[in-house]
Amino acid sequence: MAKVVVTGKIPAGGLARLKAEHDVTAWEKDDAISRADLLTMVAGADAIVSLLTEKIDDELLDAAGSQLKSVSNVAVGYNNIDVPACEKRGVLVTNTPGVLTEATADIAMSLILMVTRRLGEGERVIRAQEPWQWGMFYMLGMGLQGRQLGIVGMGQIGIATARRAKAFGMNIAYTRRSPLEDNVVNELDAKYMSMDELIESSDVLSLHCPYSPATHHLMSENQFARMKKTAFLINTARGPIVNEQALVDALKAGEIAGAGLDVFENEPAVNPGLLELDNAVLIPHLGSATVETRAAMADIAATNALAILAGAQAPNLVTS
Ligand code: DGY
Fold this sequence. Notes:
The protein folds into two domains: 3-99 and 291-318, 3-Layer(aba) Sandwich (Rossmann fold), CATH 3.40.50.720; 101-282, NAD(P)-binding Rossmann-like Domain (Rossmann fold). The two termini are 30 Å apart. It has a seven-stranded parallel beta sheet with strand order 8-7-6-9-10-11-12, with helices on both faces. Strands 2-1-3-4-5-13 form a six-stranded mixed beta sheet. Helices cover 37% and strands 15% of the residues. By secondary structure, it is an alpha/beta fold. Residues 52, 75-77, 100, 285, 287-288 line the site of (2R)-2,3-dihydroxypropanoic acid (DGY).
């Protein structure tokens, strides 16, 4: 039996599969584990099943010890893990692609609708019991039909978001490092653009690229200044892809029309400037938050960890 450390609460199915084969120590409290408790808990682990709130770096790998074989993130994004540091020690890293595509695309589409039709703003009026009345010019938004959705990072989630937007009558443009399969281009009638062209021509710009040093503050002063004044930014990827203070400044200055954010630069903190803005829709990292998706993520993480402990090939290895 190997020692498996699970760094936060995960759905029962995945946990039960780990427990059926190994000696599992799991953090069972609702609050995220403190760094000190985490460093203590990982000591002697053969496998770590981690959440995106836990930083897996040299300090943690030292605390775990040289017997550690794997870190299985219960997330598709793995920017919380120092992959090169793991590779240097021969520790394998895995993630959970595929199963959160539809749930995250649903949230991206929800944010597009919320921010362009001012739904958060409208709901706040009702909840605050402010006076209101139907009016010809009251709280008008932007219709989506015929507008361009620009997808930054046309991977699985970007494609799933584009499918939804297409059903709402939007035209799809995208940027991506490698060519998109012909059948997807044809299905979506999707137009490839350079990042600059996409920024300048999109009515809604939706971020779906992974976070890395290369995408840190990909959207900053310069990019906001080049967007249409009527355009909206959507982020369901990772907070630090956007320079949050530059976004606040651009929203305040009317350089762009609005933003819908599921992720934040310093989660769980949110830039106070955003809280004051009616044209920002803010939700707490709910992209994969459905019962079905979270169960599938835990199951995949368990599959990856169990495969590595059994000396087999893990299905979802990631490399630097
Ligand atoms: C992921 O898996 O990367 C998501 O952000 C989790 O919600």
